[in-house]
Amino acid sequence: MATEKRDYYEVLGVERSATDEEVKRAYRKLAVKFHPDKNPDDLHSEEKFKELGEAYDVLIDPNKRAAYDRFGHTAFAPGGAGFGGGVFHDPFEIFREVFGGGGFGGGIFETFFGGGERAEDRRRGSDLRYDMQIKLEEAASGAEKEIEIAKLDTCDKCKGSGAEPGSRTITCSTCGGRGQVISSRGFFHVSQTCPRCRGAGEVAEKPCQKCRGEGRVENLSRVKLKIPAGIREGSRLRSLGNGEAGTRGGPPGDLYVVIHIKEHKIFQREGDDLYCEVPIPFSVATLGGEIDVPTLEGRAHLKVPSGTQSGQIFKLRGKGVTNVNGRGRGDLFARLIVEVPSRLNAQQRRKLEEFAELCGDENTPLRRSFFERAKEFFK
C-alpha cells in the first residue's frame, strides 16, 4: 500500500498564506538540515530531502500552487481532479500559447499577466540579501567580518551540468535541439521556450543524483566582508558573485549585505558626530578642574572652567566618526551634567550652609533673571 503524501505546507512548515519569500526561507533552512551529505547515518534523510524538493517545486510555482490549493495532490496525478477531469492544465495556457514569449515582440501575456522570464534572465543566479548587526566601534573604525549563508551553489559532482559524471547530454526530443517549440491556434503559430530543456536544446541522458539534474545544490557558504570605516545605518555592501549560482553555466548573482548598527550604551551618533552626557561633581563645576571624557578610542581630558552650568556642551574636535568618503572626521560633543550630592554628613552640611550664607544672591544670575521675568506670577 502506497504511503499517503503529506500536505506540502506541512512539509515546509509554513502557513497556507505564506509568501514566496517565506516558502524559500523555509525550504532553504530545512534543505540544509536534511541534506543527505550532512546526515550520512540517517537512512531517511534522502527521503525527507526529496519530499522537501517536491513540496518546494509546487508551492514556489504560482500556477502549480493554485492547482494544489484547489485540488490537493490529485491535481498532478493522471486522471486526477484537475481542469477538465484529467491532469491539471494551466488555466492561462491558452494565453501563453497565443500571446506568450517568442511571438509578438516578447510576449503580450507577460505584459498583462506578469508571468515568464527571458531565457537569458533565467541563466543568472538570484541576488541575496543578508542583514548584519555591527557595533558602533566597528562602524566608526571599520572591521573585517565573516558571515555564513545558505545558498544554491554549483553542484560539485556534475559541475553544474545537471548530468551524472560520464553521462552524455543528448538532443532534447521535445524540441529537436532548437530550444523552442511551436504551437498553433488557428492561423497563429507561436514559438515558445521548450518546457523540457528550458531553451538549452539538450538534456542530460542520466540526471545527476546529487542535484536531481538541477546543476545546483544547497550549501552553507562563508563569505568574508570588509566593513569600511564610517559606514552608516542602512548602508548596503555588495559582494560580487556571492549570490546564488547561475543555471547552465550562467553567472552567479550578487550578495547584498545591509548594515544595522547596535545602540550604544554611552554614545549617540548623528552623521559623523558623537554625543554623550558626562556627570561631574558639584565642586568641579563650581571651582573648575580637569575631567576624563570617554571616546571610542579610550579617554580624553577636558578642562572644565569654574562656574560651569549643568547641561553645558563642550566640543572635542576630531573625536567623532571617520567620514566614509574620507572627508575628515566628526567631533564629540560632551554635555556636562552637574551632580548634586544626595547625602551630606553633619560637617558637609554645616560647611555648605556657611557657603550659602556667603554667596547670597550675588552668584545666582540665572535665578535672579528668571524671577525677574516671572515676578508677575507671584503677585
Structure description:
This protein is an alpha+beta fold. It has a domain at 268-378: Sandwich (HSP40/DNAj peptide-binding domain), CATH 2.60.260.20. Helix content is 26%, strand content 26%. The strands form six sheets. The chain has a four-stranded mixed β-sheet with strand order 10-11-15-14. Strand 4 (180-185) and strand 5 form a beta hairpin. The relative contact order is 0.09.
In short:
This protein is α+β, with helices and mostly antiparallel strands.
CATH class bucket of the domain at 268-378 = Mainly Beta
- Fraction of residues in H or I helices: 25-40%
Radius of gyration: 35 Å
CATH architecture descriptor name of the domain at 268-378: Sandwich
Mean pLDDT equals 80
Shape: elongated
Structural class by sheet pairing and helices: alpha+beta
Q: Segments where pLDDT lies below 50 for 5+ residues?
A: 79-122
CATH topology of the domain at 268-378: HSP40/DNAj peptide-binding domain
What count of helical segments does DSSP give?
A: 11
Name given to the CATH homologous superfamily of the domain at 268-378: Urease metallochaperone UreE, N-terminal domain
**β-strand amount:** 25-35%
CA-CA gap between termini: 98 Å
Spatial strand arrangement across the major sheet: 10-11-15-14
Element order: H for helix, E for strand: HHHHHHHEHEEEEEEEEEEHEEEEHH
Largest sheet: 4 strands, mixed
Can you count the beta strands?
15
